Amino acid sequence: MTQLAYYPGCSLHSSSELYDVQCKMVFQNLGIELREIDDWNCCGATAAAKTDDFLAVALPARNLGLAAATGLSEIVIPCSSCYSRTLVSQKALAADPALKDSINAELARKITGDIKVSSILEVLVPKARSGELAAKAVKKLEGLKPACYYGCLLTRFPIDVDVPDDVENPQGMETVLKSLGAAPVDWGYKTDCCGASASVNDADQSQLLMSRIFTDAVARGANCIVTTCPLCQFNVDAYQAEVGKKFGIEKQLPVYFITELIGISMGLDPVAMQVDRHFIDAMGLVKELNLI
Amino acid sequence: MPSSLVNYDAAASKPLLDEVQKRSGQNLQACYQCRRCAAGCPVGEETGVTPDRLIRMIVLGDREEALNNLLVWKCVACYTCGTRCPNNIQTARITETLKQMAKKAHAKPLTPRIADFHSAFMTSTRHLGRFNEIEALTIYETKTAFKELSQGKVKAVIDEMIGQARLALDMMKKKRLHLGVDRVKARSEVKALYEKAKGR
């Protein structure tokens, strides 16, 4: 069994625990063991970037030190925000040895800097391309018309990063889901912002942003939204009913993590994957399509 | 005074430009006002200030306006402006920088809720080493409620509380509310990083 270092981040240990559970189940089925790095801390997310340039680099840096201590060559980070902040920190440390030394001085586990930081799609897409995902599938995702929603942080970075997908029109999720028989819709808001924490501190703004996403997904004939980011998932799931009411969008779409759909294609138990823990019912559609 | 070419003074404008460029690592002088950033900015319509305007204010040395406009605070850090900029200027880094400069200068944030949320996030993270949704939200909501009550915004506070209670209830029903407290064992290490940040 292959081992990958794994950073779940705070969301996957609290409101999006289901994503943590599903990631482990799906990867296990693919012959990959996720080794959670020991005693990890919060990456600082957007709050650190907005309030303190040093902490924005230093907090993920501690996790990079813990990851290096595993001796593994790759770490997978399913949350887009954690992934982005960790990758940005790694690049910033490589560009500034003095900063790296200054942070290392505080750490028991030192940053070495060469571990590959991967998003969940960087692991899954090659497995879709090689046919490995399809080979594990016991069911085709027929009838599923997802609007693949990437949000901001999978393709856009505050520094120069080689993005392993098209920046404006990424295809990673489509590649995965097409290989499993789903028919993703072509739509215009896949990399638009849902507002993330603005849903708490600037609700009018984030609801306006989300209304554009829902309106387009519905207009393009999608029957669900799919994402890899727990912050996006929470926002577009928990606030969808309220936004729909405010902006007159009648249809509501379940918002799946990509791991839920892969898991369903593999025949994994949806309740064990906690697919019943959505704000907008996510069990109904997959039942209706005879996928479970 | 609003920034304008009419009263532009190259020497007087330099300190602000230099400070923002140094802190953000962005070359603002490369901006030729093509406004591709403005076209992509998801909050530009509501803030009235788009990334190109913000860069202009800084180049013209208007510190007052640069630190006190809605884009600095409402920017959602989606990084669309920087991705589309032909000259590779990441304006979201500039809004991050200006927020930090405003804080250092003890300037009142235009949108206290946004500033208080990020501050509550960092307080909770310093305390436990991990972000605790309940702790951070409690710090944020308490601070916001006191501030707004002292300004007589009673309805805003009640609406906020009803909204948050509804969400918490909904989360509880869907088993999305995490009541356990996760903490880092080596919290002293995380705190040392926070201390180092303060000294910089």
What does this structure look like?
The complex is a heterodimer of chains A (292) and B (200). Chain A has 292 residues and is an alpha/beta fold. In chain A, 46% of the residues lie in helices and 9% in strands. Chain A is built from 14 helices and seven strands. Chain A has a four-stranded parallel beta sheet. In chain A, strands 5-6-7 form a three-stranded parallel beta sheet. In chain A, helix 1 (17-29) links the parallel strand 1 (2-6) and strand 2 (32-36). Chain B has helices at residues 10-24, 36-40, 44-47, 51-59, 63-67, 70-74, 80-84, 91-104, 112-128, 133-150, 154-173, 187-198. Chain B is globular and about 55 Å long. By secondary structure, chain B is mainly α. Chains A and B meet through helix 2, helix 3, helix 9 and helix 10 of A and helix 7, helix 8, helix 9, helix 10 and helix 11 of B.
Described by strand count, sense and barrel closure, the largest sheet of chain A is: 4 strands, parallel
Helix content of chain B: 55-70%
- Helix-strand topology string of chain B: HHHHHHHHHHHH
Overall body shape of chain A: globular
* pLDDT < 50 runs, ≥5 residues of chain A: none
* Helix count from the secondary structure assignment of chain A: 14
Q: Order of strands across the widest beta sheet of chain A?
A: 2-1-3-4
Helix content of chain A: 40-55%
